[in-house]
Design brief:
2 copies of one chain form a homodimer. With about 250 residues, chain A is α/β, with parallel strands linked by helices. The first copy, chain A, has 9 helices and 5 strands; from the N terminus they run βαβαβααβααβααα. Chain A has helices at about 15-25, 40-55, 65-70, 105-125, 155-170, 170-175, 190-200, 225-235, 240-245, and strands at about 5-10, 30-35, 60-65, 135-140, 180-185. Chain A has a 5-stranded parallel β-sheet, with helices on both faces. The longest helix of chain A has 22 residues, at about 105-125. Chain A is globular. In chain A, about 45% of the residues are buried.
């Protein structure tokens, strides 16, 4: 019997929750991974945990707060030293990659996600004696090249290159001919399309959290709140997080 | 004036110390990075620190002990659960990648090394206003395909693929057209050749530590001690660590 293993990177926001719900429809053994670092606040972690529990999948929190010393030149890992510019306007796009860029962030996250997934599958093969010809492996991630057009590690070609790393640099591939596939189902979608997809997949939208702040209510003013709000408006759907109506 | 930035991954062993000494001859601003995880013991960390100080370069210790939960299926990250087979004989090579393999280890280490190097260089450009056309960037690493022929992430094609990640996935490359080069100067060398190279480069061999154990004297029995001992014998050089003669 075919068995699919997968990990889905889940921050607790709208995008990654939608991708995780999509992954749930395709994967037998799915784990959501939440990375705790820099500006991540307990609100997001709590949302990621609740969403995973709501979807009936395993959740793993990985503390990578040491990134403040590694990927140190960034407003996300060292907010006190380098500040995020308020409200990125359209006229600023094209002026360069902003200080909120975390050096090699998605490369680091993909490395860790693939290491965790490879550990799970190697154990299933070598200890539980699962038949290798029956195994499929996937990493789900929620980059979006529209919202983050300036970020080099949010473009499709980056994910294609990382697939090659998995082809040559893993035991799964070298010894067992299992190729981990990287899935980025919303990479080309607009925020409105993502909102519609979330509704179709029954994502518990009232538990998702997109705001940069860890306050009780979303601030409504940060980049992330504005993107989310525009997305719901264009999709013609009311954001249950704002109205408190639930879904 | 041309300025070269580099990081060198330094465990404190013979191989990485030799590569770091080689890097020192080529790089203006060199930092050695030591990753602390799993079986790393304080002896190795102390050696890495002493060697860096001896070479007059900056040293950075990065605690990645959380890898025991991520790259969990390995005798190196979880020695109590999965044990390292004693003395790997020639007849065992080819039987597969051993349990000492750490899933995606070199991908994780290269991601972190490139993130740190990118942070340093972005800061030099955007804060210190260094001229981008004058900057060269390098990561030095000490994989060896002879000693670790079974490890997928010790082969040249893995490093070629990771270079492509740096080409498409970094701000340095996308915005400033600076390509980080990955240097693996001992990848094709025998242990005897590495010993000779170390002597030529004045590596403080009496401070290097190759043994898996953190005891006062090397055990002389683990894979690493045997590889080192054979290398010195074939090179016709006395290991100062064993004789206590120093160099």
């Amino acid at each position: 019997m075919l068995k699919s293993f997968g990990v889905s990177l889940l921050s607790g926001g709208l995008d990654s929750s939608t991708v995780t719900a999509y992954a749930k429809t395709r994967i037998d053994n799915l784990t959501s991974l939440t990375f705790l670092y820099g500006q991540t606040h307990s609100k997001e972690v709590e949302c990621a945990r609740t969403i995973s529990s709501n979807m009936g999948i395993q959740h793993k929190l990985i503390d990578v707060s040491f990134l403040r010393e590694v990927a140190w030149y960034s407003a996300l890992t060292n907010p006190n030293e380098f500040s995020i510019p308020a409200g990125r306007g359209d006229d600023e796009i094209g002026l360069g990659i902003p200080i909120s860029y975390v050096p090699m962030r998605n490369t680091i996250f993909l490395s860790l996600a693939s290491s965790y997934l490879e550990s799970q599958i190697l154990h299933a093969i070598e200890v539980d004696r699962l038949d290798t010809s029956q195994i499929k492996a996937y990493i789900f991630m929620a980059p979006n090249e529209i919202d983050y057009s300036g970020y080099p590690d949010c473009r499709p070609e980056f994910y294609e290159q990382f697939s090659n790393i998995l082809k040559v640099g893993s035991k799964l591939s070298s010894q067992y001919e299992i190729q981990i596939s990287i899935e980025t189902p919303i990479i080309h979608k607009s925020k409105a399309q993502i909102v519609k997809m979330a509704v179709e997949l029954n994502v518990p939208l009232h538990h998702t959290w997109s705001c940069y702040m860890g306050t009780k209510e979303p601030c409504g003013e940060c980049d992330s709140c504005i993107l989310r709000s525009n997305g719901f408006r264009e999709a013609g759907i009311i954001d249950p997080l704002i109205t408190g109506t639930g879904i």
